[in-house]
Amino acid sequence: MAVKERVGLVVSDKMDKTVVVAVENRSPHPKYGKIVVRTKRYKAHDEENQCNEGDRVRIRESRPLSRTKRWTVTQIIGKASES
């Protein structure tokens, strides 16, 4: 079975060892054809607290780590620009 992976943006890093990652899904509307953007938020495990808000990350599905946490951060693709 293939391992599920998603790429998204960290929208919250306020919890300890957990980040909230928003993943955008752009797909055409089945009837009208307009591109519809749907956003899903995943709670992901971040062991070293490396992720900050605004980072682009890759997450991978894992065993349940808590009531809502079923993903782990595997890679930080891009850091948020420090401004």
What does this structure look like?
0% of the residues lie in helices and 55% in strands. The termini are far apart. The protein is built from no helices and 5 strands. It has a 5-stranded mixed beta barrel. It has one domain (5-78): Nucleic acid-binding proteins (OB fold (Dihydrolipoamide Acetyltransferase, E2P), Beta Barrel), CATH 2.40.50.140. A hairpin with a 5-residue loop joins β1 and β2. The protein is an all-beta fold. 16% of the residues are buried.
Keyword list:
83 residues, mainly beta, OB fold (Dihydrolipoamide Acetyltransferase, E2P), five-stranded mixed beta barrel, globular
Shape: globular
CATH superfamily: Nucleic acid-binding proteins
Order of helices and strands: EEEEE
CATH architecture: Beta Barrel
What spatial order of strands do you see in the largest sheet? 1-2-3-5-4
In terms of per-residue confidence, which ranges show pLDDT below 50 for 5 or more consecutive residues? none
N-end to C-end Cα span: 42 Å
What name does the CATH topology carry?
A: OB fold (Dihydrolipoamide Acetyltransferase, E2P)
Strand content: over 45%
Mean pLDDT score, rounded?
94
CATH C-level class is: Mainly Beta
User: How many structural domains in the coordinates?
Assistant: 1
Beta strands, count: 5
Determine the oligomeric state from the structure.
single chain
